[in-house]
Amino acid sequence: MNNKNVGVVGLGAMGLGIARSLLRSGFQVHACDVRAAVTEQFAGEGGVACTSPAHMAGECEVIITVVVNAEQTETVLFGEGGAVAALRPGSLVIGCATVAPTYAVDLGQRLAEKGLLYLDAPISGGAAKAAAGEMTMMTSGPQAAYAKAEAILAGMAGKVYRLGDAHGLGSKVKIINQLLAGVHIAASAEAMALGLREGVDADALYEVITHSAGNSWMFENRVPHILKADYTPLSAVDIFVKDLGLVLDTARASKFPLPLSATAHQMFMQASSAGFGREDDSAVIKIFPGIQLPTAKTEPV
Fold it and tell me: Which residues, if any, are the signal sequence (predicted)?
């Protein structure tokens, strides 16, 4: 089988960028998504459209799952038309979803029992870095998995951190990253809400903070969504309901207190229950009362 064949399951904001990066790197990229139109569009760019993960597994010895959570990972691997039943022994699954570390450990064991390799490989960096092949990967798994994945990882990421031989280590580091990301988004929303409440010009506040010590990557990246009143979900509120939930579940198992994470989680939960779950995560600012949010600016005619 041609070792240039690689499959990508899930062509969302990150998955499509990964698939395109691998295509540029010279791989024959097979792809599938629940949205057939997206798969066909990618085929028009030089990829290979597959009707299911199982269809893909018949052509590829390396499958990259770029889905949202453990439930979707289960579906694309073990559900109807799932990849696992069709993968040849010795094939590799690279799992990019943010999942509980305990799930990553269990999945690695289940795949090993079927003669398959698994790389616990959550990702970070956003859609732009995925599209440029510059995202960060937090990986862990056996040496045999790395040997099979080396060229593929180089083609899809700018930084690949090897965190150990044990599955779950990559996922532990990822949820700690998500702890910080979620808290920073929530804190950014709170800061902007206070500024709006106190009558500070929102654009000026953004300009000052991004050139001051209070800045963070999340403040700089997410606040423009608020300023433009554009809550198109690049990463949705419900993603942080899930991810901060994973953070708190992991800490709860060892009775470790995370007061800031718990508060941020409640903020995202409040935003979701208010109907903003599928909006951009910056929409967490909408939970604050008594403020006038920026409205969409119209271009002069």
Answer: none
Asked if pLDDT for residue 26 goes beyond 90, the answer is yes
Instruction: Tell me: pLDDT of 299 over 90.
Output: no
Residues 12 and 74 in one domain: yes
The tokens of 200 are what? 């500070």
Pairing assessment for the beta strands 28-32 and 48-49 based on DSSP bridges: parallel
Boundary (domain end) residue, out of 167, 194, 227: 167
CATH number at residue 148: 3.40.50.720
Domains in the chain, number: 2
- Rg, Å, the chain Cα set: 20
Q: Where are the alpha helices (DSSP H) in 230-292?
A: 237-253, 259-271
> pTM for this structure?
0.93
Q: How much is the pLDDT for 3?
A: 67
Quickly tell me which residue has 């599938």 as its tokens. Answer: 32
Domain that holds residue 204: 171-287
Final residue of a structural domain among 134, 167, 200 = 167
* Residue 297 belongs to a domain: no
| Separation CA 48–CA 221 (nearest Å) | 33
Cβ partners under 8 Å of residue 169, min gap 6:
101, 120, 140, 163
Do 128 and 175 share a domain, yes or no?
Answer: no
Residue of 129, 174, 242, 286 with catalytic role: 174
Q: Residue 298 has what pLDDT?
A: 61
Q: Residue holding tokens 């409040």?
A: 270
Using the predicted structure, report yes or no on whether residue 200 has a pLDDT greater than 50.
yes
**Phi, psi for residue 12 in degrees, rounded to 5:** -80, -160
Chain segment 32-78, per-residue pLDDT in tens: 999 999 999 999 999 999 999 999 999 999 999 999 999 999 999 99
What are the tens digits of pLDDT across the range 92-117?
999 999 999 999 999 999 999 999 99
- How far is the C-alpha of 51 from the C-alpha of 237, rounded, in Å? 30
Q: Is 174 known to be catalytic?
A: yes
Q: Quick check: is 223 in a domain?
A: yes
CB 225 within 8 A of CB 285: no
